[in-house]
Amino acid sequence: MNRAASSESSRREPNGSDAQPLRGEASVPPGRRVWLRFKRNRLGYWSLVVFIAAFVISLAGPLWSNDKPLVVRYQGHMYFPLVKTYAETTFGGDFPTPADYLDPFVRDRFSAPGNFAIYPPNHYYYDTLNYFSKGSNPAPPSRENWLGTDDRGRDVFARLVYGFRVSVLFALVLTVIGTILGVVAGAVQGYFGGRIDITGQRLIEIWSALPELYLLIIFASIFEPSLILLIILLSLFGWIGLSDYVRAEFLRNRTQDYVRAARAMGLSNWQIIWRHVLPNSLTPVITFLPFRMSGAILALTSLDFLGLGVPSPTPSLGELLAQGKANLDAWWISLSTFGVLVATLLLLTFMGDALRNALDTRIADAVKAGGGQ
Fold first, then answer.
1. Which residue, 35, 7, 4, is CA-closest to 21?
2. Residue 297 lies in a domain
3. Which of 233, 302, 352, 359 could be joined to 290 by an S-S link, Cβ 3.0–4.6 Å?
4. Is residue 19 part of a domain?
5. Nearest 10 degrees: CA dihedral of 182, 188, 191, 193?
6. 87 has which bridge partners?
7. Residue 246: which of 199, 296, 200 has the closest Cα?
């Protein structure tokens, strides 16, 4: 009975579900084993699925949130406004300027017999100004504008879609750059130790004492704000915290027997670092990736809210929050933006927790020993 009960308890997940354990998990490659552990965490796994799906949808934003038709048939010819700009005269207008597909005149031309236009589900781009709207702005949610408009008449739903894409791309770039710098700095200090480690720690202490916000304000007043400038400035400080964890892992692993064996075989220091020590020191690096992304999204949102971020009309979650603050009666702006921001941060947090549990063998061993309790 005890053996049967123990076997039954070993089949339980950390959340108490009755999913079957991984058969022959010890023979599974380490990377595959981590993925299977991550996948067993339902909350973290589905957070990853939802986050990737939302990001892919935002990347394909022009296909379903745009002020240009996807396909136009006019007088027997096919046109594709998404990939080519057409003049108003192409569709029977009087001016050679780019066609405004929200213009009732242009829409009437497409509705004539033999002509048609296939529009995206949402008829607005992130910077579209509907000059033919008869209402005042900001306007509440309606059939035409699903989440209303901002104080300039731009569609809030479109700006949220493209603002989410900008935030995630910014976070990905900043995370990659900060991770590379942090790994290099921590690896050099931790592996060589001695004077190199002490000197590096003192330099990092001096560098981290610089007032980051003040530097951002100074550079924003000198140079025109842009995503590239923000990435450069934030990358100068975003690697410091990660380098401490990598340094600690290298200090621990450099005394292991496999490192001594590699030295005895005549491998160079850089070969030992790259082939042996680094792969065994990546746990904190991978674990912190989702949390670093959430920190980058919060940093961009905060800077945009303060007016130090990306220039207009670039879509931004922080700029929408600032509009909500300036227009308290337009509740739809703050509510929808806050919902997108909170949902994004929660998804990244759940992913980070699941990834940490999957990489930490002590947690996995505790789960096995305790029968998932």
1. 7
2. yes
3. 352
4. no
5. -110
6. 98
7. 200
The model's pLDDT over 223-277, given as tens digits with 9 standing for 90+, comes to 877 888 889 888 988 899 899 999 999 999 988 898 999 988 988 988 999 888 9
Cα–Cα nearest to 185, from 235, 234, 232, 239: 239
Is 267 among the domain residues?
yes
For the domain that residue 284 is a member of, what is the CATH number?
1.10.3720.10
Q: Which residues of 232-248 are buried (b: 16+ CB within 10 A; e: fewer)?
A: ebbbbbbbbebbbbbbe
Element (H, E) at 107: helix 104-110
The pTM score is: 0.84
Helix (H, G, I), strand (E, B) or coil at 238: coil
Domain assignment of residue 53, yes or no: no
Domain residues for 362? 157-370
Domain count of the fold of the chain: 1
Interacting residues of 144 by C-beta distance below 8 A, sequence separation 6+: 123, 133
Q: Could you read off the pLDDT of 75-118 as tens digits, one per residue?
A: 989 999 999 999 999 998 888 999 999 989 889 999 889 899 99
- The answer to whether the beta carbons of residues 126 and 133 sit under 8 Å apart is no
Whether residue 41 contacts residue 47, with contact meaning beta carbons closer than 8 Å, is answered with no
User: Residue 83 is which amino acid?
Assistant: V
Here the tokens at position 244 are 């401490």
Interatomic CA distance for residues 291 and 277, integer angstroms: 24
Which residues are registered as beta bridge partners of 77? 74
